[in-house]
Amino acid sequence: MRAAAPAVVLAVAWLAWFGVAQWSVVRFRVPILLVLTAGTALLAWWLVRRVEVPLPRWLAPVLVLGSVVLTLTVPLFSYLRGGWLTAALAVVAVGGVALAGLLLVRAPWGPPAVLGGAALTHTVLASVAVLGDRAPKIDVWVILQQGADVSARLGNVYTAQWSGSPGVQDHFTYLPWMMVLTAPGRWVAGDVRWMMLVWTLVLLAGLWYLAGGTPSGRARAAAAAAVLVVAPGTITQVDQSWTEPVLAALLVWWAALVRRGHAWWAVVPLALACASKQHLALVAPVLLVWQPFGWRRTLATGGLAGVLLLPWLVADPAAFVDDTVTTLLTFHPIRFANTWYLYFLNVHGVALPFAVTGLAMLAAVGGAMWAVWRRRPPVGEVLRWAALVLAVANLVNKQAFYNQFWLVAALVLASVLVPSGADDDAAGRGDPDALSARGRRGADATAA
Questions:
Q1: Do 98 and 139 touch, CB atoms closer than 8 A?
Q2: Chain segment 210-219, per-residue pLDDT in tens
Q3: 0.85 exceeded by the pTM?
Q4: Would you say 286 and 365 are in contact if contact means Cβ atoms under 8 Å apart?
Q5: Closest among 114, 425, 410 to 291, alpha carbons compared
Q6: In which domain, by residue range, is 135 found?
Q7: Total tally of structural domains belonging to the chain
Q8: What is the share, in percent, of the chain residues with pLDDT greater than 90?
Q9: Is 273 exposed, middle or buried (0-12, 13-18, 19+ CB in 10 A)?
């Protein structure tokens, strides 16, 4: 029982995190903030103590079924109505039960079947969400959708005006490659959310590649895919066109390429991520001091990201900086964000100065850098440090919502796919000889 305690804690933390995250849209509640803070503190404790967390066979089915129960019982925000909402809930319920059953099957075809089932479940769920709500009333969808149209005309999204947006009217607050990476959904199928579906499938494939080609690795990856696609609040995430699946897919592929000994190729997905959303700059210093990736590749990532941004920066520097930097720094707090900034504002009427929130983020980044530099951990632990940095940034920011907390959890989930062993440590450092040796041993074991 004692050996299983870390797994039990992990299960409770995962379900609590996503239960309050689903409840948080669109409401501020102190208990929500406290649970998210406790989850972040638990992640910090896990990293400091480096506790080994076993992954017993029961864990994934429990998480999947628990997620189904939470999805059906916790207040859920969605623009889907009537039969469409019922259909979406049915997809999660039926898909979750089916995936839990497949996870319990002991057969060689089990992991591929689970991975395929997870991909199918999410594809059907996304289809229901897109077809059931053709025009979600959220500025994220409006600016990505109309931004794709502007780009198709070779216009500049940073000088465009958005019509029908319930929020932002005259700014494109993302970095430009978020538009580039999602626009094909609009161009080909009429809605950027179809491309969000594609990126989620790319994420699931990345989990499979990250976990490795061994039977145990495939089983872990399939379980992670099943857990992720039925996470509470996924219906809202798809419906709202939130962009974090793009970032998660790119970061997981970065980790997978580093682990598989292709660290220079890993520069490409990381640069695309950094050219898509601003707050990933917080993760770059951690990678800078992590020797398996190192300062050369981190600087190459920054250089490539800069090249990717250059056309928009050159086209209108003032508009680019105003939309992507100034607007975010001066944007008004959104009252239903569950952050400590909003706690002091909503409960005590006090707006925390940037010195306080900035110091908290600086402490998180500095602590992660020190630990990663001293320990030279495998890539799984690095993913957890990145998740901790982003979680702290979320909690002290003027705004942070379900999608940002979803990304933190997705990185933690990806991190547990990389077990901490001698071979995996070598693989995490991008050692091709270690990978080849492990592959030979795996082949020998299979032959035996």
A1: no
A2: 999 899 999 9
A3: yes
A4: yes
A5: 425
A6: 5-447
A7: 1
A8: 88
A9: buried
